[in-house]
From TrEMBL:
DNA-binding region: 39-58
Protein name as it appears in the record: TetR/AcrR family transcriptional regulator
Species, as recorded: Dactylosporangium vinaceum
Domain HTH tetR-type: 17-76
Keywords of the record: DNA-binding, Repressor, Transcription, Transcription regulation
Length: 207
């Protein structure tokens, strides 16, 4: 009897987990096509899920938006970038992938805007803060790797450079979202890589 109840709970959990994943997949498709909905009820209507069912899996609009973006990033980064790829190249490739899904760039812009109102959106603020910290750490390590190999000047602070790369990417993608025919994110980021000072060649300055 007890084993039957345990198996029943496991089946119920798997079913709920699958249903939640299905809702997230539908929401990603919706946001990619149309941008972010105004409310949890509007999102539910658009993806064919009742408001009550949506509230069962996601307590708030903030929770749904955060989980949609987390799932999108997991799918996007299933194949990790090789260690030799530079910090700017990593961001450039991500921005290039985003060109096909402007609605998810809009979702990211919505999350960062909401994060500025921490008292109203504490979950979103924590998510965005954590994401920035993790991304800065990852990019800073690539910059340190470039310094060790001699391709980036040693006197550049890796953490400051990482923050600058993220700021450039986010700002450029926002400009592209508003004016896609004028702003070329990839080209601008390539220029940033050229502006990042490289280490002098061995023997430079010697007489």
């Amino acid at each position: 009897m007890e084993q039957g109840r345990v198996q029943g709970r496991e089946r119920s959990y798997r079913k709920a987990s699958q249903r939640r994943a299905e809702i997230l997949s539908r929401a990603i498709e919706l946001f990619a096509e149309r941008g972010v909905g105004a409310s949890l009820r509007a999102i539910g209507d658009a993806i064919g899920v009742t408001h009550a069912a949506l509230r069962y899996y996601f307590a708030s609009r903030d929770e749904l938006l955060v989980e949609v973006y987390r799932r999108h990033e997991r799918l996007e980064h299933e194949a990790p970038e090789p260690d030799a790829v530079s910090a700017i190249a990593v961001i450039e490739r991500s921005a290039e992938r985003n060109r096909s899904i402007p609605g998810l760039v809009e979702l990211y812009a919505t999350l960062t805007t909401d994060a500025l109102h921490g008292t109203e959106h504490p979950l979103t603020r924590q998510f965005v803060q954590d994401r920035f910290r993790q991304l800065r750490a990852q990019l800073a390590e690539r910059i340190r790797s470039g310094q060790r190999s001699g391709t980036i000047a040693a006197d550049i602070d890796p953490d400051d450079a990482a923050a600058l790369v993220i700021a450039a990417s986010d700002g450029l993608q926002l400009q592209w979202l508003l004016d896609p025919d004028t702003v070329d994110v990839r080209r601008a980021l390539t220029l940033l890589e050229r502006l990042l000072p490289s280490a002098p060649p061995p023997g430079a300055g010697e007489h």
